[in-house]
Each structure stands twice: as C-alpha cells, then as structure tokens.
Amino acid sequence: MLLALETDMENGIRGDRTDIDGRRKAFGTNLLPEYNLRRSFRRFTLEAIKDPMIVVLFICAVLSLCFGIQKQGLKQGWQEGVTKILAILVVIIVSSGGKFWPLNQCREFSDISSYIPETDVVRSSKWQRIPICRVVVGDIVFLKPGDQVPADGLFLDGCLLHIEMTKIDGKIDEVDAHENPFLFFGSTVVDGYARMLVTAVGKNTKHHAIYLRGSIIDDIKRITSIVGKNGKRVALLTFLVLLVRLFTGKIYDDKGKRVSFGGETRIGDVFIAIVGILATPTMIALTSSPEDLVLAVKMCLAYSMKRLMRAKILVREPSICHSVASVTTVCMNKTGTLTMDTMEVTKFWQGLNSIEEAQHNLIAPNVLELLHQGIGLNTTQPPSKSSFSSPTNSTEKAIFEWAVKQLGMDVENVKRSCTILEIKPFNSKNRQSGVLISKNGDNTIHVHRKGAPEVIFPMCSHYYESTGTVKVMNKGSKALFEQILEGMAENGLRCIAFAHRKTSIRDYFTFSRQQLILLGLVGLTNSRRSGTRGTVEDCHRAGINVKLITGDNKVTARIMASKCGIIEPDYQPGELIEGEEFRKFSSEERMKKVENIRVLARATPDDKVLMVQSLKQKGHVVAFLGRGIGDAQALREANVGLCFGNQGAEIVKACSAIVISYKDFPLIIDILRWGRGIYDSVQIYTQFLLSATFVALVIDFVMAVSSSEPPGFDSVADVSSGRIPYPVFQLLWMKLIGGTLAALALLTERPSRDVMQRPPRNLKEPLMTTKMRNNIWAQALYQIAIFLVIHFKGKSLFNVNAEEKDTLVLNTYILCQAFNIFNTRLSEKNLFDEIQKKKLFLGIIGLIVSVQVIMVELLNGFSGTARLGFGQWGFCIAFAAASSMVTWFVRCMPALGNFKLPMLKPKID
C-alpha cells in the first residue's frame, strides 16, 4: 500500500506542489461535495408543484382560463385565469424560497466551521499542522486524544488507540484500532495515539450520520398536521354542501334564473359548476392550513443562528432552543471554562526546596537532565523525527515553555540523546501520563511519570534533592510535602508531580511501580475569566443553579468557587464534597444530596457523568459547560452541551450542541437568553397563526355556503350557490401577513430582558400551553362573532352594498391580525419601553395598516375591494382594537384555564 501510494512511513509524501496537485487530481480533495444550490432550489420548487392543493388550484386556474376565453373572448377572457396562474406561481416561488433560505443559512454555518479542525501530517520528513481539508491520499497523519480522524485510512502504529464512531441510529461505538485497523472520517480519538495512512478523502470517504436530539420542529409539525386535517375536513364539508345544493337545482344562469338538471341543461355548464365547487373548498383548505408555521420557525432558527454567529457562537443543533429555555442547572468544569486557556508555572519545588530558595543553575546536572527528559519527552506529540513544537494542551504547553526558558531545556538535544520506546498519554481517569525511553549513550531504560500528586505520590518511595541526593520519603517528609501541596492549593495553583525510575530491560517487567523517585513539583496558575461572578449571579436570578465539577483538590476548588460566587465563604456542610465520597453514596442518598452539592472536587470523568445523570433523574434540565476530553461523556449526557472551541479537541465539539469560539464567559447568559427568547417567540407566533387560521377557516366556510346573491354561471370563480371567499390577490395578501410579515415581526426580534427574570419553563410542558389555548379561543370567538355580524347584518347596520360588506369583512380581519400581533406583547412588564426598541416590530404593523389602506382606497379595482368611508373605517378600527381588551380580559381570568378547544386537544399535548 505504501509503495503504491509513493509514501514513506517515516518521511511521508514529498509534499511539493506537483505531488499535491497530482494526488488531488487522481484521488480528489478532502472537501465534502459542495451543495448545489441551484439543484436544491429546483428540488424545493418541484416539491411545491407536486403539492395536491397546488395541483388542484392550477387545474382550476387553467379551466378558468379556457372557459373565460370561451365565454368572453380572448381579449377579456384571459385576465382572470392568467391572474390565478400568476398567483399560484408566486405562492410556489415564495414557498420554495422560504424552504431554501434556512438550508442555505445552515450551509453557511457549515462552511464557517469547516476550517476549525486541524491535524498533524508528515511531509518531506517534517511534521506540520494543517487544516483537514488539505489532507491528501498518501499522507501519514498523527492522531492524539481529541483529534478528529481527517479522512479514511489504515492504522499503522501507535499505543492504546481508541476511537468513537457515530452509527446511523445515533449510537456511539468505541473501537480499538489495534483490533480493527480501518479508521473512518468523522470518528474522534478518545484515548491513545497513532499514525495512520490516508487511503480515501472527500466524497470517497465513508460518512457517518450525525445524530440530532428531539426537535421543536417535531412539535410544530404535529400542530400543523392536526390543524391542517381539520381544515381539510371543513373543506370537504363545504364541497358536500355545495354539491348538494347543485344537485337540488339551486344554480343560476347568466340572467339569474334557476337551472335544473333536465331539459336543455348543457353538460359543459354542469361541468363548469362542479369545477367551481371544487375550487372553493380547495381555496378554503389552502387558506386554513398553517403550513407556514414550520417554515417560519425554520427561518427564525436560521436567522438566530446567523446572529449568534456574529458573537462567535456556533449552534450545531438549532432545535436545542427548547432545552436551553428549560435549563435549571448549569454544571461546569474549571480549567478552560471558569479560567483562561493559558497557564503559567509560578512555583517549582525540587525536593523540599522552592524555586526561590534554589537557583536552577544550582540543581544537580543529573537531576536537571532527568527533568528535561520527563518534561520534553513525556508528552503526546508526533514521532521522534519531527521538528518539535510546543504541545497544544495548555498545561503541557506551560510546563514545556517554562522548562525551555527557566531550566535551559534543549528539545532537539533531548530527543537525539534518547529513543522513545512507549508513550502512555494522559488519561482523565488515571490522571497521569508516562513515557518509557532508552538512553542512547548507555542503553539504560528510564521510566517517567507525570500527573496529579495524589496519583504520583503513592508510587514514590524516595525523592531527589536539588543537590542530586536521593532521600527516603518517610512520614516526616510526606507530611512536609503535604504542607507544600496545601500551600499551593490555598493559592489556587494546580500542582503537577514528576517521578522517575532507572531500570533495565531485564528488570523493567518486574520492578515495583511503587519504587519511583519524586523529581519535583510544579505549581501552575491560570487567571479567572472576566465576568464569571456576574454571570453566576445572573444565573441565580434566573432560577438556574450553578455547580462546579473539577478534578482539582478540595481547597483549590473551594477558592475558585468562592471567587465566582458559586458558594459562600461560610458554606454549609454537604455543599462541597469530593468525587470519591459522591461515588460511595447509595442511589437514594445521592438523590437526596445531589441538589445541595455546589462543588464536586477530585472529580473523574465518570463522576461528571454520574452528576449529570443524577440531576436529570431528579427532574433537572442540565447544561454542561466543558472543554477537555474528560468532559466529552458529560457533554453528551447533558440536555445541553456547551464548550469553548479550541484546537485539538474535536471530540468535545462533536459532543456539544453549542460551541463558543470567543473566550468570553458572560456569553453563557446570552445563550440562555437566546433559548428562552426563541422558544417564547415560537409560542407567540404559533398562538397568532392558529387563531388567525381558525378564524379564517370558519369565516371562509360561512361565506362560501351562505351567499345570498345568485352568482354568474359562466365563471369558475362563481359556484352554484356560493363564492370563493376572497379573490386571489386578497388571498395572497392574507397569507403574506400570516406567513411572512407576522413571522418577521414576532420571530426576529431580540429577546427582552424579562425572559431572564423568571424561572425556567418546564421541559415536559407541551408547546401548546393552557394560556395559549385561552388566548386562541378567546380571540377566535370574538373575531368570528364580529365577522358573522358584519356578514349577515352588515348591509343594514352599515348601510352598504354587497361589495362594501365583503370589504368590511376583509378590512376588519386584516386590522384584527395587526392588533393581534401587538397583543402578543401585552404580557411584558415594561411594554412601551420594549416596544420602542423593536423597530422592525412597529414597522411591520405600520406596513400592514398602510398597505391595507392603499388596497381599499387606491387599488380597489385591482384588489377586488370597495372604498370605505371614515365612519366605516372607524368601525373596523374599533372592532380590531377591542381585541386587545379581549386579550387583557382573558389573562385576568385564570378560571378559564380549563377550557380546551376540541380541534387542539388532546392530540397536540
């Protein structure tokens, strides 16, 4: 395989421009096939054309065109049919564009995030870090914990390599590469390190499915399906009523005389009447179906994602807003989340002497050499022939750079003098790493260990002094070391211990691991992120508990938690415990104490998962904020996984629903506000659209079957005993208000400050709440009552003709919807202050009213309306404004909460 791909196992490919271009030409690039936007839009257009409603409307429009030309001639008969065809085309284009736009936004987010993953490859004997999109077939890739497998390939060599692969059903499989040498693109390295040979890139790789959690879109689709079915039932009832009236002889000819099925009745006339009957219920079904709801919610999520992207927040699962809105507990790690990524060595203890008491040049050369080996070689990096660079892990990087600057470590010299036999990478569970080396000069074997002091100390029987003397670690020295560790912990330092043992090949497999010699201790500090305390206080005000789960000791964890406001200086017993104690709790005891725990110290990755699981069993909705590989399982287990994006931790991003690229801790509050605000907006828009749809459904049915005027027999738009409720232009205007303008007004505004001043919502609460049902049925009953009065008594009450009466119905309906958009904000505490900030909200309401005035008063001929007087406009405005009083009245009457609309219960809940 290596020979066929012209690849050297140690030196990699040539890597020049000619070599890279040739490989890309022969095997392709490591870019996924770009989405064909033109083909996507075409696909959505074809789907819209195949919709049964569109098909029926199009057939009716074509027949209307044919019969219109037959009856009125080509010069005048084409107008009505062509107008309907153009209106249908507009609906198809708007619908396709609305579905295509969110997809295009998601594609943009994918493009933005595609540059983030990088990997190590060797070319021309030099290791370099490149974006995965530049990997080509034949590359030798170095993998370490947290890396994403950049392409399909074969395992060459390595140590303890374990990878995770996502299956089609969303389950995670952990694979041992030593047993299964095939590595696939998209998998993530959990443990160990390895070199792999790239065998396939780009579209030739075996892609794995991305598993998404439960979606708010599913709830919306259920509501849409239920309401749509009820709309179709009403349309069917309308068709049956009109069909019965047709066959009972209640149709009229051009002169207004009743026509019966007998004598000289022409079959063509009957066919035209039946087509008209079919067109009417089809229009009703199309008007009453809230299909725009799903589309509007997708547009809202895409718009919100784009706005969050400007704040360096990548939402990998847009539908997670429901869970974000319900978060009751935020669990977070310390390193890299509450603290900054960068660390610095501020303390060094050689034996019982601190860095201030012994200069580095006074440290014995043999001890200094061992320190160079333990720091320079005990790290997961590309193999020995690489040109070395500092590690990417913040802890290792800080120690590495400190050793170079302060201890005079020459990395290349250290690497040349030793041969690495085996590396055991740092493991979050064991909290240590190790390296087995052979010194080239004397062929001696050296074992180095590095990790948490509580793990390394039990392995040590002796310790080095700065003079190079080896002393026994007795009870007295152990007590002194304990004091040193406590002192560093009191100062908030993270401590790392180094240990060493010289042995031989013969004795390596038999020597006791408890006979290492302690080389030294380093204390690292990293500054706390700005705004942490204020963010924690904001979470508490919003009814959200904050818990710190860290691998640091109890003292360090307490100091950090106290600075951030997670616990008070005089905290209560049980608020701060260690992971070992937490694990030993029985299930019943853990359930009793888990809510009271604020800080979990000395926590392993399993402890983090156990904490998240326990909180979820207790009924909490948990958000976990992590950064390291040890947080991956907890991020996956939490309802909402959040991480700070960083190089070399692709598994953490893969397990997170939200990735924060900008290292600003207060963004957590912005994310929580976004989740609550989006979910509130979706509920508000759902309430608005369902009430408007329900009203339109009833009014359309009544107007279709109760027309008292004998319509013309020669028009498809005029049916046997009723008429299509609204002309095509008015129908499109109504759909534009409900499906686009209202969505823009209600779904694209920034969340108000009120959303973070109330407790989280219940995750198990259905999207359609009792409060929403109350508002829907109240608005629906009020508007229906007003419209029925206008429809049946409007002529006498307002002294108008039939055309003016229909215009009153339309005008009142449009103004009611404009006021109903405003009514959705009546629950806000600072209503007028918040409204003034919502420029788009006010602009859309003004646009709806202005366009309606222009349609009625200036374009009445084109829109099929009649002009109204000042008094009639006054009545319309008064009827619409009274809807605000109805909304206020319903919210003041909690006793109405048990009322349930039959069409919305119980299936939606």
UniProtKB/TrEMBL annotation:
<keyword id="KW-0472">Membrane</keyword>
<feature type="transmembrane region" description="Helical">
    <location>
        <begin position="870"/>
        <end position="890"/>
    </location>
</feature>
<dbReference type="Pfam" id="PF00122">
    <property type="entry name" value="E1-E2_ATPase"/>
</dbReference>
<dbReference type="Pfam" id="PF00689">
    <property type="entry name" value="Cation_ATPase_C"/>
</dbReference>
<feature type="transmembrane region" description="Helical">
    <location>
        <begin position="234"/>
        <end position="252"/>
    </location>
</feature>
<keyword id="KW-1133">Transmembrane helix</keyword>
<dbReference type="InterPro" id="IPR004014">
    <property type="entry name" value="ATPase_P-typ_cation-transptr_N"/>
</dbReference>
<comment type="similarity">
    <text>Belongs to the cation transport ATPase (P-type) (TC 3.A.3) family. Type IIB subfamily.</text>
</comment>
<keyword id="KW-0406">Ion transport</keyword>
<comment type="function">
    <text>Catalyzes the hydrolysis of ATP coupled with the transport of calcium.</text>
</comment>
<dbReference type="InterPro" id="IPR059000">
    <property type="entry name" value="ATPase_P-type_domA"/>
</dbReference>
<keyword id="KW-0106">Calcium</keyword>
<dbReference type="InterPro" id="IPR001757">
    <property type="entry name" value="P_typ_ATPase"/>
</dbReference>
<feature type="transmembrane region" description="Helical">
    <location>
        <begin position="840"/>
        <end position="858"/>
    </location>
</feature>
<feature type="domain" description="Cation-transporting P-type ATPase N-terminal">
    <location>
        <begin position="4"/>
        <end position="64"/>
    </location>
</feature>
<dbReference type="InterPro" id="IPR008250">
    <property type="entry name" value="ATPase_P-typ_transduc_dom_A_sf"/>
</dbReference>
<dbReference type="Pfam" id="PF13246">
    <property type="entry name" value="Cation_ATPase"/>
</dbReference>
<keyword id="KW-0109">Calcium transport</keyword>
<keyword id="KW-0479">Metal-binding</keyword>
<keyword id="KW-0067">ATP-binding</keyword>
<dbReference type="GO" id="GO:0046872">
    <property type="term" value="F:metal ion binding"/>
</dbReference>
<feature type="domain" description="P-type ATPase A">
    <location>
        <begin position="117"/>
        <end position="210"/>
    </location>
</feature>
<keyword id="KW-0460">Magnesium</keyword>
<dbReference type="InterPro" id="IPR006068">
    <property type="entry name" value="ATPase_P-typ_cation-transptr_C"/>
</dbReference>
<feature type="domain" description="Cation-transporting P-type ATPase C-terminal">
    <location>
        <begin position="728"/>
        <end position="890"/>
    </location>
</feature>
<dbReference type="GO" id="GO:0005516">
    <property type="term" value="F:calmodulin binding"/>
</dbReference>
<feature type="transmembrane region" description="Helical">
    <location>
        <begin position="52"/>
        <end position="70"/>
    </location>
</feature>
<dbReference type="InterPro" id="IPR023214">
    <property type="entry name" value="HAD_sf"/>
</dbReference>
<dbReference type="GO" id="GO:0005524">
    <property type="term" value="F:ATP binding"/>
</dbReference>
<dbReference type="InterPro" id="IPR006408">
    <property type="entry name" value="P-type_ATPase_IIB"/>
</dbReference>
<dbReference type="InterPro" id="IPR023299">
    <property type="entry name" value="ATPase_P-typ_cyto_dom_N"/>
</dbReference>
<dbReference type="GO" id="GO:0016020">
    <property type="term" value="C:membrane"/>
</dbReference>
<feature type="transmembrane region" description="Helical">
    <location>
        <begin position="272"/>
        <end position="297"/>
    </location>
</feature>
<keyword id="KW-0112">Calmodulin-binding</keyword>
<keyword id="KW-0813">Transport</keyword>
<dbReference type="Pfam" id="PF00690">
    <property type="entry name" value="Cation_ATPase_N"/>
</dbReference>
<dbReference type="InterPro" id="IPR023298">
    <property type="entry name" value="ATPase_P-typ_TM_dom_sf"/>
</dbReference>
<keyword id="KW-0812">Transmembrane</keyword>
<feature type="transmembrane region" description="Helical">
    <location>
        <begin position="728"/>
        <end position="748"/>
    </location>
</feature>
<protein>
    <recommendedName>
        <fullName>Calcium-transporting ATPase</fullName>
        <ecNumber>7.2.2.10</ecNumber>
    </recommendedName>
</protein>
<keyword id="KW-0547">Nucleotide-binding</keyword>
<dbReference type="InterPro" id="IPR036412">
    <property type="entry name" value="HAD-like_sf"/>
</dbReference>
